[in-house]
């Protein structure tokens, strides 16, 4: 194939990624990877938090980064946070500095055990691969895996599932499926949706269709949960926190989700928080700003209120 052909763009989804006609994928805005460390004094330790990586599915290259507070008694059971990173289903990583730092902070502030999912990315692994991976990890956590941190410290009666952007889309799907399929194994104490990516028309919906293996559209309930009110009513969790940002281009779909959940007749507790003057996932890129600190406090407060 000549160089001219190799530089021809087939799909341009900047500032996320581009797909070229020769199959090459160019990703943007990548946060550098950081290693896990069981030494809480190291940079990767996150300041009082230990971490390590565990392979869940070797055949699909699905793994998790586990986080545990520095000081925890051997037999002490902790609430569990399943965290699902964002990135339009096509970029991002649980091993990146942005997500490592954020989840470490959540663990330190909330005194929980966290499981951050490294799922398969599209388009190399078309949707529904990432959806299947997240559900598989939750099932793995709930099935007595041969992992000491989980066996010794995980309290499966107090599980939270959280994610931002596309990770929030995956979070809703995972909780909805677990409500039906894993209800006997795990109790979801709360679901946290941060700046959820539930579609918004135009380029976003075109991105979704490009990443899917099957014929789908903007009303696919995996992307737009409001399209399936029956699934909304079947959610089984102690409460839902939906977080929006005033200048986020996806804000309206987050608001619509809250309205749809209320109209569905779901009987759980719904909480909302909106950050004025900020855009999409601002807290990841500027974690030390005052609004990011206030937002962290709000998420931690929600977790503690459900224990």
Give a quick rundown of the structure:
This protein has 307 residues and is an alpha/beta fold. 33% of the residues lie in helices and 24% in strands.
Structure description:
By secondary structure, this protein is an alpha/beta fold. It is built from ten helices and eleven strands. It has helices spanning 3-6, 97-110, 129-141, 148-153, 166-181, 203-211, 229-233, 251-263, 282-285, 290-305; strands at residues 9-13, 17-20, 25-27, 49-57, 62-69, 78-84, 113-118, 154-164, 188-194, 239-245, 269-275. The strands form two sheets. Strands 4-5-7-6-8-9-10-11 form an eight-stranded mixed sheet, with helices on both faces. Strands 1-2-3 form a three-stranded antiparallel sheet, with helices on one face.
Number of strands: 11
Number of helices: 10
What's the shape?
Answer: globular
Radius of gyration: 19 Å
Strand order of the largest sheet: 4-5-7-6-8-9-10-11
Largest sheet data: 8 strands, mixed
Proportion of helical residues? 25-40%
**What amount of the residues lies in strands?**
15-25%
Q: Detail the poorly predicted runs.
A: none
- Kindly report the average pLDDT value: 91
Helix and strand pattern: HEEEEEEHEHHEHEHHEHEHH
| Structural class computed from helices and strand pairing | alpha/beta
